[in-house]
Amino acid sequence: xxKDTAYLNGELLPVHQAVISPLDRGFLFGDGxxxxxxxxxxxxxxxxxxxxxxxxxxxxISIQVQFMLRDWQKLIDDLINKNGGGDLGVxxxxxxxxxxxxxxxxxxxxxxxxFAMCSVLRKPLDSNELDDFGCKVVTQxxxxxxxxxxxxxxxxxxxxxxxxxxxxxxDETLLYNEQHMLTEAASCNVFxxxxxxxxxxxxDHQILPGITRAMLIDILHDKTDFQVTERDISIDEVKRxxxxxxxxxxxxxxxxxxxxxxxxxxxxxxNVCKRALAVFNQYKFDY
Length: 287
What we know:
The protein has 287 residues and is α+β, with helices and mostly antiparallel strands. Helix content is 26%, strand content 28%. It has seven helices and 15 strands.
């Protein structure tokens, strides 16, 4: 559910009054960058990491916004406060702006459109609740563009992959490249556990540098004795794994119980996943 107050180009206003031109390049071309910041108990998680990824994305596609770090921080904090705090997702989208014509080339002297809103977010899972959850997923060859490290609003490839899983009554779609190496899921990063060793695909242009992914790696490194390795993982290795998890800002850490028709491990939530979620919940506001 979308909350009442939004932000548009310097103004906080009722979300139904936030009007954007149909000539906006975000609408016509998907020409923009977005971020999603989870908020629990009124406190944003990984706020400055999300802001930095937003800034990196804008630089990557040459959108210049006159915002400093403190301006993004204030926007986020103001939206949280105006929408009552609690458990929220703050969505920020920056497009190149509206021109007076539809043309592929970047227009000159066009002001970017900055929009943000809040939605209600499910309360985070406690590690003791995991036994009541778990995903079943399918696999599919990754058909997206070659700049998946940029958090672009051009999400049709991800949407089609996600819908492939929905059409098969599954929760997500795991993606693999032409070499049958795991990239990520349609809307999440992926972790694999083999003999209590945690593995995740190394970052490159095929994979979004997830904030929850990065925070979890740092927390596991700093607060546990688990080893985490970033390397290539074949999709066959994923299916043989002891445990497989999804990570994202909205799901945090979510175990996978079945991939295609293959049961993962014993088909139950693994102990490594439970420990990882417990330590993530303990320290996520500190990172």
